[in-house]
Amino acid sequence: MKKKFNLPVRQLATVGAFAFFLILGNFLMEKKVIGLYYTKVLMVAAINMILAVSLNIATGYLGQLPLGSAGFMAVGAYTSAIIMRKVTFVSPALAFPVCIIIGGLAAALCGFIIGVPALRLKGDYIAIITLGFAEIIRIVILNIDSALGITLTYGASNLKNIPKTTTFTNAFIWVFIVCYLVNALMKSRHGRAILSIRDNEIAAESCGINLTYYKTMAFIVYAFFTGIGGALYAGYLGILNPSGFSFAKSIDILVMVVLGGMGSMTGSVISAAVLTIVPEILHAFSDYRMIVYSLLLIVVMIFRPAGLMGNKEFSMDMLTGMFKKKTKGGQRKK
Amino acid sequence: MLKVENINVYYDNIHVIKNLSFDVNDGEIVTLIGANGAGKSTTLKTISGILRPKTGNIVFENEEIQSLAPHKIVSKGLVQVPEGRRMFQNLTVEENLEMGAYTLPKGEIPDMIEDIFARFPRLKERRKQVAGTLSGGEQQMLAMGRGLMSRPKLLMLDEPSMGLAPLLVDQVFDIISEMHAAGVTILLVEQNASMALQVADRGYVLETGKIALYGSGKELSESEQVKKAYLGG
Hints:
The complex is a heterodimer of chains A (334) and B (233). With 334 residues, chain A is mostly helical.
């Protein structure tokens, strides 16, 4: 497809818009327009964006249904948190990016271990096996200390005193990095192979695509970025408990991906933001909050069954396209 | 070029292919015909690596391939056009063809696509159309075009005439003859025995996983046994 804007223009515009967003956010926070509470909501939104974008790789692009996000998140969160607590010779702010990546790698390793057997199965079985895996992780974290007689995760009594290094700025920088990498991956030859597996496995195989390799690769990338999201989550909370990584967490993220549109990265970003912020705004409804929230989800799925964005991506072309349509409509009225 | 030697294939405990041997020489069209359940598609799937033979060898250009993964077999130039026209439904005709050239260097793709369009003018008219909206015949052409995109040495066609109108069946077989004339070696699996035997140099008749008869296309189409069983004579 031919784009209206060439690559350097689009990249500059993206980076510019992102920088503007960061500066505006920080400015509003300094002026107390966005209070401490909503700053935290925005940080959670950023973490959810990363989680949703990475789950979208496995569900939207690869076409599988893993329910193990909470497990990979827990691995990333605990790995990063344990290292952060031990590292005292450099400032936490400096150690954080490294710990995030180590958290991601630990999750990716788990993704590899679980992905190799799981991806030989099809459909629902992947959901079951990843769900089971996430539960195993949670229970291991809960019991490993007493079982092995060590103090590592502190089990049910909370892993405390994790440096709170996640900020508005670095959370959104990670969102940007993750989105950039996922986008680059999906535009590449490897991305095409992954999409072709979703469309038709038999056809992909007869084109000479290594199914096992690409399925495992997509799954590992999903686990890696989910681990990064988990590490940021640890740095945001400052305290971890295994019960925070239950099955419900995986489902929350899946809801974001489905609502945003399976196979649309920007859709995942938008719906992660909406689904994080809306429940907070609905506080006005107090006890009826969750009812309104559920109704909202149902209404969206009725009117936009393929999700907010379908499988399309939000882009500059789309913006200018919308603008043109509007002016055309205006002319017709004359 | 391709030599299948005494392969035995099982689906769990069911013995589907029993000591099957046949060969395809360079430049030939060879057809496997037989009734439903004779093991024709199973044989093709085994050759392209989707199924594994329990015993026996498959030799392609003097190299044993029975234990290679499917994508490795494709990159050796042994390409299957799967049964039932498996398309990437949401991609356009052109993008489907590009996917077919997955194993080729990028620079060669535009030329290859033009080659395919020259052979299938119908696809050129529809190059921007989404594959799922093509008619059955057009989809079959696209499936064959996609198979040709990787410059196969041997193209395996699994029931290309399945579910097509008689006029389109003729067209598909014309295309097969044309591809053959252009130097592609073809292994054709068909239920439409009369058409298959007309274009084939040699044929094998499969019955419950064994070869019941073999001979040149002409011999087989004149054989009383084949006439009775498959040609409605």
